[in-house]
Amino acid sequence: MKVSIDEDKCIGCGTCSAMAGDFFKLENGKAKVIRQPTNAQEEEMIKNAVNFCPTGAIIISKEG
Ligand code: SF4
Known about the structure:
Layout: E1 2-5, H1 15-19, E2 24-27, E3 30-33, H2 40-52, E4 58-61
Antiparallel strand pairs: 1-4, 2-3
């Protein structure tokens, strides 16, 4: 699983970095992916953040 951010949709609310700070951080008012998940537990954390992102800016793809 590969995670990325749609910066056009991200409003910089900080929810993802608060929920999963190992994977997301805010930079210049936008979320950045700082690490990809490497196991199922980490993928669950990412999916959780996806569910709480207010704008649907966190993108999960199967590749990678
Ligand atoms: S939760 Fe969504 S809108 Fe908020 S900072 Fe993260 S990616 Fe951006």
